[in-house]
From TrEMBL:
Protein name: Mechanosensitive ion channel
Record localization: Cell membrane
Protein family: Belongs to the MscS (TC 1.A.23) family.
GO molecular function: mechanosensitive monoatomic ion channel activity
Membrane-related topology note: Multi-pass membrane protein
Residues in Mechanosensitive ion channel transmembrane helices 2/3 domain copies: 68-106
Native organism: Clostridium lentum
Transmembrane segments: 18-39, 69-87, 93-121
C-alpha cells in the first residue's frame, strides 16, 4: 500500500513538473532552435552586405565573431531565464572565472584591445611598409592578436598588437610621395658650381624624380677632407628605392666621366729625424 502511495506522489510531482517547468523547457528548446537559426541567417546577410560594400575582410571577420558570440550568449541567457533557471549563482561563478581568466590572459587581452584599436584607427594597412622600434617590413596580414610583417629578405615577423599600439610606428607608405636624401662628397680642388650642375642634370634626366615639389642640390658641409653636397629629390612612394639606388649609381658614373674625384679619408704623416752627434 505504501509503495502505491509513493508511486502516486511521484506521478503527481512529475505531472506538476511537466505542467510548470516541462512546458517551459519544451518551448524553450523550440525558441532556442529558432533563435539560433535567425542569428545565423542575420549574420550571413550582414556578411554579404559588408562584402558588397568592399569592407575590409579583417574587420568583417572580427565583427562577425563578436556579434555571433554576443547574440548567441544573450539568447541562451534569455532561454535559461524563461525555463526558470536561477542565474544568480551562475553569474557569481562566471564573474569569478572571468576575473581569474583576465589575470591569466592579461597579455592576450592587451593584444586583443590593440587589434581592435588598429582595426578602428588604421595607422597602417595591408601592403604598407612600416617600421617599429625593433622591426621593419611590409604588412602582410592584420589579425586580432598579431600583425604579420614580411621583411625584404622574405622573413615573416609576428608582432603582438599590444606592443604596436604602445610604441611608435613609422608608416612609409601612408603618403603618395617621399623624399630621397643623399650626400655626395667631392674634393676641395673641384669646381663646386660644375659639380652642382652635374647633380642637377642627373636629377632632371631621371624620369622618376618629380618636378613638383622641386628638388634641391646644395653644399651641406665643409668636411675635413671633402665638400659634401646634399641632394633632396621627391618621387612616388613606390619608386623610392629605385630612385635611391639609381642616383647612387648614376652619380658615380657621371663623376667618373667628368673627372670629378670622390675623396676618401687621408692622413698626412710628417716624420721628423733627430740626428744625434757624439
Amino acid at each position: 500500500m505504501k509503495d502505491i502511495v509513493s508511486l502516486e506522489r511521484m506521478l503527481e510531482k512529475l505531472y506538476e513538473w511537466v505542467i510548470t517547468r516541462g512546458v517551459n523547457m519544451f518551448f524553450g528548446v523550440i525558441f532556442l532552435s529558432i533563435g539560433w537559426k535567425v542569428i545565423n541567417k542575420t549574420l550571413k546577410r550582414i556578411r554579404r552586405i559588408l562584402e558588397s560594400k568592399n569592407a575590409d575582410p579583417t574587420i568583417t571577420r572580427f565583427l562577425d565573431n563578436v556579434m555571433n558570440v554576443t547574440l548567441k550568449t544573450v539568447l541562451i541567457i534569455i532561454i535559461l531565464q524563461y525555463i526558470g533557471v536561477n542565474l544568480t549563482g551562475l553569474t557569481t561563478i562566471v564573474a569569478s572565472a572571468g576575473v581569474a581568466l583576465s589575470l591569466a590572459l592579461k597579455g592576450s587581452l592587451a593584444n586583443l584591445a590593440g587589434g581592435v584599436i588598429i582595426l578602428v584607427a588604421r595607422p597602417f594597412n595591408v601592403g604598407d611598409f612600416i617600421e617599429t622600434t625593433e622591426h621593419s617590413g611590409v604588412v602582410e596580414k592584420i589579425s586580432i592578436f598579431y600583425t604579420y610583417l614580411v621583411t625584404f629578405d622574405n622573413k615573416q615577423i609576428l608582432i603582438p598588437n599590444g606592443i604596436l599600439t604602445d610604441s611608435s610606428i613609422v608608416n612609409y607608405s601612408s603618403k603618395e610621395i617621399r623624399r630621397v636624401d643623399l650626400t655626395f662628397s667631392v674634393s676641395y680642388e673641384e669646381d663646386v658650381i660644375r659639380v652642382k650642375n652635374v647633380l642637377i642634370n642627373i636629377l632632371k634626366n631621371n624620369e622618376l624624380v618629380l618636378e613638383e615639389p622641386e628638388f634641391f642640390v646644395g653644399i651641406s658641409m665643409h668636411g675635413d677632407s671633402a665638400i659634401n653636397f646634399i641632394v633632396k629629390a621627391w618621387c612616388k612612394t613606390e619608386d623610392y628605392w629605385t630612385v635611391y639606388y639609381d642616383l647612387l649609381e648614376t652619380v658615380k658614373i657621371k663623376f667618373d666621366e667628368e673627372g670629378i674625384s670622390i675623396p676618401y679619408p687621408q692622413m698626412d704623416l710628417h716624420v721628423k729625424k733627430n740626428i744625434i752627434i757624439d
